[in-house]
């Protein structure tokens, strides 16, 4: 190893070029800081190259597959198409490469210095970067850690298996599983189950933990799984795994106490998340961490060491989502540049790219009930929406939870076409502490999925135009009776 003769000085050094890291780098450069971004692999990180983007390519392909029957109804003469997995893999590679080049161009255009190598803190204002035989020292005023997490097998899995794949493997398989067992209760597990069923695999979904979705959304999702002939098993105790040359076998007891034996050609699990902090040497420099190594930060994304910030999956607060990393990245850069921003993750949306997709923001009915709140709910089925009918996207519903006394909206949850696009409106309504009247007042394009939100809010008082709520009593102009839960 050759040690560089000079110490490079920088305003800001960022470790990790994923969505949080490169966003922070560009925002800091926009604010006039001298920025160096260090990435030991590829720009875009796990999200762009192995996670978010590849998984959504699969989800998008599955959604297009699901539209084929409706295309025939519209009059298009189509044979039953068969997935060419090699072509899908090529498409995914082309998309990720194009997006990665876009990130590279953005960094270059904003004069962000990008260095490939492995970074280690040598003091609370210096770090070493190793790249092959070269080792350079950088002195910084501030640093941002954006190193993310790595997926590892759950503790109940005794060792590595040939036919057990994690999230970075499932989107690189060169053959479609004949029978895919999906083990997990997280968003990607739900997506993988529906994607591979759409592609032609038999799928068994094992949910080791309860879903955190609103009960109405979960009920509709289970109905979709049943319709798609995806077998769902809840609860796992005493799991054992055996693997042969051509199959994997799971034995366990479900939540009903029933012994189960499931055989498949492949097993997918999202596994456990492990923060990438071991190589950084943080313990010596006063950076507080919780169990498993996650870094504790404040609402400016600053750690207990005032020179060091951390963002994204590596932080202890909030779920492992790219939207969190991007928000924290901007906040950290702006705080370092002298601003006073805040990363408030209260209304972080849950987005699941299943078919149909799911979007959830704010309190679920379950949480409202657990907190003893006096609340009311309104639901609207998309099969009563005109645009859903004509587009063949009738599955799903929108549900609104509001405070029964103040009429402030507490949560909005949707499963159905357009959910992801509407999620920004859901977040905005909750951020502004909107009341029911704030949703009633605007005009809504017709026909559109947007009308479903209005009708769900109108259903709070039994005034949804396109559905009849038999549980509600007739209302008079003098008084309104609302359903209190």
From TrEMBL:
<dbReference type="GO" id="GO:0005737">
    <property type="term" value="C:cytoplasm"/>
</dbReference>
<feature type="binding site">
    <location>
        <position position="313"/>
    </location>
    <ligand>
        <name>FAD</name>
    </ligand>
</feature>
<dbReference type="GO" id="GO:0004148">
    <property type="term" value="F:dihydrolipoyl dehydrogenase (NADH) activity"/>
</dbReference>
<dbReference type="InterPro" id="IPR006258">
    <property type="entry name" value="Lipoamide_DH"/>
</dbReference>
<keyword id="KW-1015">Disulfide bond</keyword>
<feature type="region of interest" description="Disordered">
    <location>
        <begin position="466"/>
        <end position="485"/>
    </location>
</feature>
<feature type="binding site">
    <location>
        <begin position="184"/>
        <end position="191"/>
    </location>
    <ligand>
        <name>NAD(+)</name>
    </ligand>
</feature>
<dbReference type="InterPro" id="IPR036188">
    <property type="entry name" value="FAD/NAD-bd_sf"/>
</dbReference>
<dbReference type="GO" id="GO:0006103">
    <property type="term" value="P:2-oxoglutarate metabolic process"/>
</dbReference>
<dbReference type="InterPro" id="IPR001100">
    <property type="entry name" value="Pyr_nuc-diS_OxRdtase"/>
</dbReference>
<feature type="domain" description="FAD/NAD(P)-binding">
    <location>
        <begin position="11"/>
        <end position="329"/>
    </location>
</feature>
<dbReference type="Pfam" id="PF07992">
    <property type="entry name" value="Pyr_redox_2"/>
</dbReference>
<keyword id="KW-0963">Cytoplasm</keyword>
<keyword id="KW-0274">FAD</keyword>
<dbReference type="InterPro" id="IPR023753">
    <property type="entry name" value="FAD/NAD-binding_dom"/>
</dbReference>
<dbReference type="InterPro" id="IPR016156">
    <property type="entry name" value="FAD/NAD-linked_Rdtase_dimer_sf"/>
</dbReference>
<protein>
    <recommendedName>
        <fullName>Dihydrolipoyl dehydrogenase</fullName>
        <ecNumber>1.8.1.4</ecNumber>
    </recommendedName>
</protein>
<feature type="binding site">
    <location>
        <position position="56"/>
    </location>
    <ligand>
        <name>FAD</name>
    </ligand>
</feature>
<comment type="similarity">
    <text>Belongs to the class-I pyridine nucleotide-disulfide oxidoreductase family.</text>
</comment>
<dbReference type="InterPro" id="IPR004099">
    <property type="entry name" value="Pyr_nucl-diS_OxRdtase_dimer"/>
</dbReference>
<feature type="active site" description="Proton acceptor">
    <location>
        <position position="446"/>
    </location>
</feature>
<feature type="disulfide bond" description="Redox-active">
    <location>
        <begin position="47"/>
        <end position="52"/>
    </location>
</feature>
<dbReference type="Pfam" id="PF02852">
    <property type="entry name" value="Pyr_redox_dim"/>
</dbReference>
<dbReference type="GO" id="GO:0050660">
    <property type="term" value="F:flavin adenine dinucleotide binding"/>
</dbReference>
<feature type="domain" description="Pyridine nucleotide-disulphide oxidoreductase dimerisation">
    <location>
        <begin position="349"/>
        <end position="456"/>
    </location>
</feature>
<dbReference type="InterPro" id="IPR050151">
    <property type="entry name" value="Class-I_Pyr_Nuc-Dis_Oxidored"/>
</dbReference>
<keyword id="KW-0560">Oxidoreductase</keyword>
<keyword id="KW-0547">Nucleotide-binding</keyword>
<dbReference type="InterPro" id="IPR012999">
    <property type="entry name" value="Pyr_OxRdtase_I_AS"/>
</dbReference>
<keyword id="KW-0676">Redox-active center</keyword>
<keyword id="KW-0520">NAD</keyword>
<keyword id="KW-0285">Flavoprotein</keyword>
């Amino acid at each position: 190893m050759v040690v560089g003769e000079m110490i490079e000085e920088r305003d800001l050094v960022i470790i990790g070029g994923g969505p949080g890291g490169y966003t922070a780098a560009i925002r800091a450069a926009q604010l006039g800081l001298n920025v160096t971004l260090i990435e030991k692999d590829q720009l875009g990180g796990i999200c762009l190259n192995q996670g978010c983007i590849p998984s959504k390519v699969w989800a998008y392909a599955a959604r297009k597959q699901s539209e084929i029957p409706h295309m025939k109804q519209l009059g298009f003469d189509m044979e039953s198409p068969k997935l060419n997995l090699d072509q899908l893999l090529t498409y995914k590679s082309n998309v990720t490469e194009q997006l990665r080049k876009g990130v590279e161009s953005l960094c270059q255009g904003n004069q962000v210095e990008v260095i490939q190598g492995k970074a280690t803190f040598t003091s609370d204002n210096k770090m070493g970067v190793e790249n092959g035989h070269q080792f350079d020292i950088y002195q910084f005023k501030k640093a941002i850690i954006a190193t993310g997490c790595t997926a590892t097998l759950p503790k109940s899995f005794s060792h590595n298996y040939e036919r057990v794949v994690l999230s970075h493997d499932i989107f690189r398989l060169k053959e479609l599983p004949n029978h895919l067992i999906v083990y997990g209760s997280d968003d990607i597990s739900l997506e993988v189950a529906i994607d591979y069923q759409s592609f032609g695999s038999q799928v068994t979904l094992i949910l080791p933990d309860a879903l955190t979705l609103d009960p109405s959304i979960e009920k509709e999702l289970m109905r979709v799984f049943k319709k798609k002939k995806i077998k769902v098993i809840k609860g796992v105790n005493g799991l054992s795994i055996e693997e042969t040359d051509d199959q994997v076998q799971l034995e366990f007891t479900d939540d009903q106490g029933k012994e189960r034996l499931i055989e498949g050609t492949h097993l997918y699990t999202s596994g456990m998340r492990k923060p990438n902090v071991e190589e950084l040497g943080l313990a010596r420099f006063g950076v507080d961490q919780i169990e498993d190594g996650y870094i504790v930060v404040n609402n400016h994304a600053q750690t207990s060491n005032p020179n060091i910030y951390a963002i994204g999956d590596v932080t202890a607060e909030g779920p492992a989502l790219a939207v969190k990393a991007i928000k924290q990245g901007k906040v950290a850069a702006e705080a370092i540049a002298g601003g006073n921003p805040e990363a408030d993750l209260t209304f972080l949306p849950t987005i699941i790219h299943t078919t149909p997709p799911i979007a959830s923001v704010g309190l679920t009915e379950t949480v409202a009930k657990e907190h003893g709140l006096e609340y009311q709910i309104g639901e609207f089925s998309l099969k009563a929406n005109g645009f859903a009918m004509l587009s063949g996207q009738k599955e799903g519903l929108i549900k609104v939870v509001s405070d029964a006394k103040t009429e402030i909206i507490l949560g909005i949850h949707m499963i159905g076409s357009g959910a992801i696009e509407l999620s920004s409106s859901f977040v905005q309504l909750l951020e502004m502490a909107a009341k029911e009247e704030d949703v009633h007042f605007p005009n809504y394009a017709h026909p559109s999925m947007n009308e479903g939100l209005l009708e769900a809010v109108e259903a709070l008082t039994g005034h949804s135009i396109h559905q009849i709520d038999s549980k509600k009593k007739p209302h008079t102009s003098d008084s309104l009776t609302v359903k209190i839960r």
